[in-house]
Amino acid sequence: MCGIVGLFLKDKALEPELGRLTAAMLHEMCGRGPDSAGFAIYGSASDGTSKICAVRRASALDWADVAARLGEATGSKVTYETIEDHAIIRIDGDGVAARAWLIENVPEATVLSEGEAIEIYKGIGDPDAISQRLRLASFSGTHAIGHTRMATESAVTIAGSHPFSTGRDTCLVHNGSLSNHNRLRETLRRHGERFQTENDTEVAAGYLSWRMKEGDSLQQALEHALDDLDGFYTFVVGTRDGFAVLRDPIACKPAVMAETDAWVAFGSEFRALAALPGIDGARIWEPAPATVYAWSRS
Amino acid sequence: MSPSVRVGMKATHERQNTGLDMASLSLRQVNESLQKAEAGSFVVSHPRGAHALAAGLVSPIDVTVEGHVGYYCGGMNQEASITINGNAGTGVAENMMSGRVHVKGDASQSAGATGCGGLLVIDGNASARLGISLRGLDIVVKGSIGHMAAFMAQAGNIVVLGDAGDALGDSIYEARLFVRGKVKSLGTDCIAKEMRDEHRALLRGLLDAAGIGPEVDVSEFTRYGSARKLYNFHIDNLGSY
After folding, report:
1. Structural domain for B55, as ranges
2. Which residues of A touch B84 (CB under 8 A)?
3. A2 catalytic, yes or no?
4. Which of A49, A54, B71, B234 is the most buried (most CB within 10 A)?
5. Of B101, B119, B137, which one is at a domain's C-terminal end?
6. Would you state the pLDDT for residue B3?
7. Mutate to test the interface with B, among A27, A247, A252, A270 (most CBs of B within 10 A)
8. Cα distances (Å, whole numbers) of residue B42 to A212, B37, B58, B159
9. Are residues B138 and B107 in the same domain?
10. What is the ipTM of this complex?
């Protein structure tokens, strides 16, 4: 199982509604993934600062101390705010280096995302309770991806929850399971990718990050994934300006898409899309297997 | 409930065009109303992708669903005539026994899977695994179909006005497949066969039943079926297994 939702807005007027619409979509997918849930929200990019989202694994963590140590280590200005067990750390400097420092030096936290626009939040348990606790409905932004997980390949932990992000402003959610992730993880480590879990989906996220660092567009990275990833998958991928969908060649996992002049949406089932504004006039289709569907903001 | 148990029960819904609005009624309430009815016409509104809607119907009632449905709509249908004015999710009309299911939009995977009888008409496209393990249901698709259609199909007929995807009719038994467009690839033990008069008559009857007029000519179709090499293990066919 597992449930996926994605919403990519074309109409700016809907941006304040992004979180509310995503929460309603995620609600419909609770039954497909009651173990954990997570969501990525792409807000407007800020003034050159990087945002790092992290969640504490310990029952308490002194985020002020973490921010101070990070500032000292990187020589950058660091600020932070918290939402429940998550912290959004803003750094006026090299966000990639800051992410690496946090992974090395703060084992009590899991780093969820790094970038100018992306924020990722995750929790264990009932997806509705998670989106309420983390105030999903209050977020505005340009696009969002959500996931409800029924765990198969690794334990029910925050770290094993989706979305996975290993590269700047890039995230991926997955319904399915990969069979060649162990070997591919080792290959990607040799290429310099950094992994925090034993989860198969994180390897897919790392693979796309690596391909895009090598110069692939999102479309090209996903076309390469068809050759290099073995297993069952429906992926929804977000980048700072883009949104893409890919299903494995036998279309093992469900998918339905809809598009209007105002938005593009993805759902594991149609009921996730049924409440979107203008759905009655939307073009609705099932994405074909082994076919990359990609949108980007110009 | 078996049909014999219903004999002597009083019909609970005999009004014409009974409206069932899922904005206010639960899925269970709607299905219970439809399953208990012995006659009449029903219009279900605001389905919003609900699963297993109008499944397990056992009487010759008319049901029209206004909107898109989720999984297994019309599953196990006996005698009822169900029209979906929208798209259908996975497994529409799966294991139907008799009656008619008509999808006005597209159908997702495994439409009509394991169907034993009746007629399933899909006006749009159907995706993967249409009519897998078919056991007597007739399916007419006006658009195109995805991969692995008619996998291990045993009996019944599938008519496709558009194209078929990969591995059509893999490991097929005695179902008949009629495709007007291109077939991307045939599955193991599925071959093109001669269209004889009895096949042309059968196909014409299926098109008529689906409301498709003489503008669609049976001579445009190719018939596919089993090469019958996989029925029993034979060492000469090892490469085909």
Report:
1. 14-119
2. none
3. yes
4. A54
5. B119
6. 40
7. A270
8. 54, 10, 14, 29
9. no
10. 0.88
Question: Could you report the per-residue pLDDT of A80-139, keeping only the tens digit for each?
Answer: 999 999 999 999 999 999 999 999 999 999 999 999 999 999 999 999 999 999 999 999
- Collect all residues of chain A within an 8 Å Cβ-Cβ radius of residue B148: 250
B142 in A contact zone (CB under 8 Å) = no
Neighbour order of strands in the sheet with A3-9: A118-124, A36-42, A143-149, A3-9, A263-267, A256-259, A283-285
How far away is chain B from the Cα of A280, in angstroms, using its nearest Cα? 8
The DSSP element (H or E) to which A164 belongs, if any, is strand A164-167
Chain A window 12-41: which residues touch B at a Cβ cutoff of 8 Å? 28
| Nearest residue in B to A270, CA atom | B49
How would you classify the pairing of strands B222-226 and B176-179?
Answer: antiparallel
Contact (Cβ atoms closer than 8 angstroms) between residue A237 and residue A266: no
pLDDT 10s digits, B200-212 = 999 999 999 999 9
| Residues B134 and B60 placed together within one structural domain of the fold | no
- Whether residue A166 is contained in a domain is answered as yes
Three-class secondary structure of residue B236 per DSSP: helix
Q: How many domains does chain A have?
A: 2
Count how many domains chain B has. 2
Both tokens assigned to B44: 């279900």
Q: What percent of chain B has pLDDT over 90?
A: 88
Substitution target from A1, A25, A271 for chain B, most B beta carbons within 10 A = A271
pLDDT < 50 regions, chain B = 1-14
- Predicted local distance difference test score (pLDDT) of residue B5: 38
Question: Is B6 domain-assigned?
Answer: no
In-domain check, residue A121: no
